[in-house]
Structures are given as structure tokens and as C-alpha cells.
Amino acid sequence: MRKGIDELMVIKRAVWQGAARLVALMGATVCAAVIMGTTAVNAGNIEKRDFGKLPDGTPVFEYTLTNAKNMSVGVINYGGIITSIKVPDRDGKIDNVVLGFRDIDSYVGKNPYFGVIAGRYANRIANAKFTLDGKEYALAANNGPNSLHGGVKGFDKHVWQVKELPGGDSVGLELAYRSPDGEEGYPGNLDVKVTYTLNDKDEFRIDYAATTDKATVINLTSHSYFNLAGNGSGTVLDHKLTINADKYTPVDPTSIPTGIASVEGTPFDFRQSTRIGDRIRDGDQQLIYGRGYDHNWVLNRPNDGSLALAARLEDAKTGRIMEIETTEPGIQFYTGNFLDGTLVGSAGKMYRQGDGLCLETQHFPDSPNHPDFPSTVLKPGETYKTSTVHRFFTDKI
Ligand code: BGC
Question: How many whole angstroms separate alpha carbon 325 and alpha carbon 201?
Fold first, then answer.
């Protein structure tokens, strides 16, 4: 009998121990879930919201990519436009460092290419024409005698298909657009994919890819106007800039490159970090043509398609720094020379000359008419691939 009771006690104890273990396990699971829940809150996420409608009724959405450190990037499906890039300053204060608008009507209206994907050929093509395989192609002359940023209705004015790319230590969006054969005068059906990725190291990366069914020319870039002191905070003349380039492409009066020249001894020498305002009013003929900086630099880089440092932008006031790495051979540095106080931006302030600057990684302007420049020809069977990374940090040690 005693043995029976003892056995019963053993069984009871085992049941209790099992139950206790189960409770402990459940507790651990709940804790893990809570921890994971917390992680989930801090991990990158993608939010989608209505951003109004195009005049033809097409709905526009804004996607916000946010990383674990609270940096965020806003993107709309119209033009693949980057509407905001929010990063902390040296005290942790987050601000939007790109120019933009609050509503879709302003983007559809007179947008000076704020944040857009520029294409099929970003930058200029002289006299709006080029010859490929013996055939001349006529484009729209939408910038004096030249074609600028893909013509009258470039990639910046189309709705892109968006796929959300949730991930572990990064979040992203894949944007796709098919540019039909003959669109804006360019040959070949071109399938374009642009992928925006924001990782937890505060790096915002853009990968471009395209294929065609007829030989064509292509040059894609992202056209954000940066102001590291904050959108709407005044001019960027106090920012300091470094461009990793010994050479640039001087232009004619219509901003078409005339060749390649050394930056040595000119206001175009940004090999050392230099305040942008220091030489912008120098009276240099090239600066007069552009009303400031609006030129392409020939980057010092290996010719192997790797990511190499192109530029570094610093704002001493806020401590914000942005570095740009690219696989591209050139970068257009444009000081917002044509902003003239007629547009009111997303911070509720009007934009005046020099209130933002563009650093557009790309092939050289007018390459289709310069056989000596790196080629922008894409043939069937080939894949166009380029990448650019914007790395944000501060001078806080
Ligand atoms: C060009 C400028 C032009 C601007 C339009 C830049 O990429 O270099 O000349 O005015 O785009 O926003």
C-alpha cells in the first residue's frame, strides 16, 4: 500500500514538474513573442497610403520605407518619385533632406524633376536626335534645341508597378515600367526595373535594370534635390562637397558637353572638401552657362562595374553627411539654378535658387552623339545594370 502511495506521489510530482516545465516553456514563449514583437516594431517596415489621383483618375500611392533606426524614405508610384528622405542630425533630430511637394497635383504640375526616375535618357541629347546602327532617331526638343530627361513624357511622368520587398535588415520596393517601342522617339520595347532598398545601416540603395528587344540608348538616374540642413531651410551654399573626379565635361551654351577637361585650377575642382558657395559666383564662363553648377564630372574609378565613392556632402550646421557610391562613370552636380521662387514645397516654404542640389549618378550627357564617351547603347540579349548607394550618417563621434 505504502509502495502504491509512493508511486502515486512520484507520478504526481512528475505531473507537477511537467506542468511547471510547461508553464516555464509557455512563459519563455510569451517572453520571446514579446521580444520578437518589440523587434518587429523596431524592424524595417513598409507603409502604403493614398496620395490622391492623377487627372485621369489613376490612384497614386505613397509607400514609406522605415528602417530599424527610424530613417525613412517616401516613394510614390507616379514617376517613382522619392517624396522624402528623413534622417537624423547629430542630435538625433529627424528631418526631410530632399525637396518635394505635399500633393500629387503639384507633382503632375510644374515639377522640376524633384525626386524622379529620369529616363529613358536622363540629361541632355543634343539637337534632340541621335544615330544608331545607321538610323537617325528624332526626339522631342523640350529644352531649347535639346532633349532633356527622356522628352515630353519621360519615365518621371508614368505610373510604375510597385512590389513591396519586406526583409530582415532591409526593406525595399521594386518598381517596374515597360516603355513601348517608339515612346518619345526611342527604339525598342524597354522593360525597366528600379529597386529602392533601405537597410538598417542608413544606406539607401537604388538598383536599375533594363532589357530591350531592339538596340536603343539608355541612361537612368534618380533626381533628388538634397538639402542636408532640411528641406525648406534655405540654400545649400554652406554645404561642403567632395567629388572624386580629376575631370569634368565642360559644356556649350545649351549645356551640351564639348569634350573632357581637367578640373585643376578651376571652380570645378572638388577633389578636396569645398564649400559650394565659395566659387559659385566666380564669373567662370562654364558657371555662367549653367547659372551655377550644372555639369557632369568624370569619376575616378576602376572600369569594372564595382561600387566606388563618387561624392561626399556635408552640412556643418546639422552634422549630416551623405556619401554616394556608384557603378556609373559620371555624376551631374546641379545647384538648383532654375528654382525661382514660384514653387512651394512640402515644408510649406517656397524654393529659391540654390535651395537644393542634385547629385545625379549617370553616363555622360549626350553620349549617343559622343563615340568617345562610355557607351549608352543597350542591345537585345544584354541587361542594363547600374547601382547607386546613398549612405547617411553624422559627424557625431
Ligand atoms: C539638369 C538641369 C535641369 C534640371 C531640371 C538637371 O538634371 O542638369 O539643367 O535644369 O535637371 O530639373
Answer: 14
Q: Say if residue 49 is exposed, middle or buried (CB neighbours under 10 Å; 0-12, 13-18, 19+).
A: exposed
The tens-digit pLDDT sequence of the chain (397 residues) is 333 434 433 333 433 343 334 333 333 333 333 333 333 446 799 999 999 999 999 999 999 999 999 999 999 999 999 999 999 999 999 999 999 999 999 999 999 999 999 999 999 999 999 999 999 999 999 999 999 999 999 999 999 999 999 988 999 999 999 999 999 999 999 999 999 999 999 999 999 999 999 999 999 999 999 999 999 999 999 999 999 999 999 999 999 999 999 999 999 999 999 999 999 999 999 999 999 999 999 999 998 999 999 999 999 999 999 999 999 999 999 999 999 999 999 999 999 999 999 999 999 999 999 999 999 999 999 999 999 999 999 999 7
Residue 19 Cα to ligand 1 midpoint, Å, equals 71
Judge if 103 and 15 occupy the same domain.
no
What is the Å distance from ligand 1's center to 303 Cα? 26
Which residue from 74, 40, 313 is spatially nearest to 196, judged by alpha carbons?
74
| Together in a domain, 18 and 159 | no
**Number of separate domains in the chain:** 2
Rounded to the nearest angstrom, the distance between the alpha carbon of 270 and the centre of ligand 1 is 20
Q: For a substitution probing ligand 1, which of 147, 149, 287 has the most ligand atoms within 8 Å of its CB?
A: 149
One domain, residues 26 and 128: no
Residue located via cell numbers 569594372? 304
Q: Are 164 and 106 in the same domain? A: yes
pTM of the full structure: 0.89
Known catalytic residue at 149? no
